[in-house]
């Protein structure tokens, strides 16, 4: 979207890992938002927030946490979007996407939430190391997207132990960030990973789990998106987690993931590059 000297840019708060921040950015929910902002072609600037400072930065906005720990205490995380044009501050990736669609319906590539069947369900019995956003009460196509978001988050989150020790922390604050990550997960840093046979088993589970998602992508053989050549927010949800996978999995495991299920996820990741530009 063209900007003028008087245009007030929206501010997008993203999580900074190892410097330089744009190149190492791999947090899935902020990536959903970056994709959505670029999809809608809305002007914005990024404020990079170190992982250990996320709680204090978000807390300063005085907006409710979008998720909670099991004990009911707030789970403060990013993204947050501040839009000076409306005075709105939105603090959840799904809510940001719905806000962008409602406020800027005709911008960019069009509708983020076109009607489609999103019947992917993940019945998880694996431990989740962070709370996930639950599907909100909604009507129409957005309700299906909210449910899809919850199930995709759960499917990937259940396999996050494959990724945790690959997080590209800033060496200057690595120990502080590890401590914060451990606090949020409720277990020591050393317990937040898997190796050997346990890792192989979890990788097989990951591949099998993504098979259910891949079936949706095979419904329209023209691809690479769920609706063929037309991207939607559902693709951006999956794409955010693929960014996490790319940034944290060992190289050979990321290459394997891209090839799983006839390469649907590799093609999706590559196709989403058009919405991956940094400000």
UniProtKB/TrEMBL annotation:
Pfam families registered for this protein in UniProt: GST_C_7 (PF22041), GST_N_2 (PF13409)
Native species: Piptocephalis cylindrospora
Residues in GST N-terminal domain copies: 17-108
Coiled coil spans: none
Protein name (record): GST N-terminal domain-containing protein
């Amino acid at each position: 979207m063209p900007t003028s000297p008087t245009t007030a840019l929206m501010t997008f708060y993203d999580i900074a890992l190892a410097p330089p921040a744009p190149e190492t950015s791999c947090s899935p929910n902020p990536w959903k938002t970056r994709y959505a902002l670029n999809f809608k072609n809305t002007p914005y600037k990024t404020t990079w927030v170190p992982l250990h400072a996320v709680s204090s930065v978000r807390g300063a906005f005085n907006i409710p946490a979008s998720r909670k720990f099991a004990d009911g205490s707030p789970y403060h995380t990013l993204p947050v979007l501040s839009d000076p044009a409306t005075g709105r501050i939105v603090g959840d990736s799904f809510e940001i996407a719905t806000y962008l669609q409602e406020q800027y319906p005709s911008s960019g590539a069009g509708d983020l939430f076109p009607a489609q069947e999103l019947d992917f369900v993940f019945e998880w019995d694996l431990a989740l190391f962070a709370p996930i956003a639950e599907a909100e009460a909604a009507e129409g196509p957005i309700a299906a997207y909210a449910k899809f978001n919850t199930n995709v988050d759960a499917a990937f989150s259940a396999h996050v132990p494959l990724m945790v020790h690959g997080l590209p922390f800033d060496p200057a604050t690595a120990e502080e960030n590890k401590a914060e990550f451990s606090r949020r997960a409720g277990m020591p840093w050393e317990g937040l990973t898997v190796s050997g046979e346990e890792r192989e088993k979890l990788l097989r589970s990951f591949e099998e789990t993504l098979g259910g998602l891949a079936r949706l992508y095979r419904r329209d053989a023209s691809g690479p998106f769920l609706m063929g050549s037309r991207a939607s927010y559902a693709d951006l949800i999956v794409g955010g987690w693929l960014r996490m996978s790319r940034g944290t999995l060992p190289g050979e495991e990321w290459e394997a993931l891209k090839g799983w299920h006839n390469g649907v996820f590799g093609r999706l990741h590559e196709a989403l590059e058009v919405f991956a530009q940094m400000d």
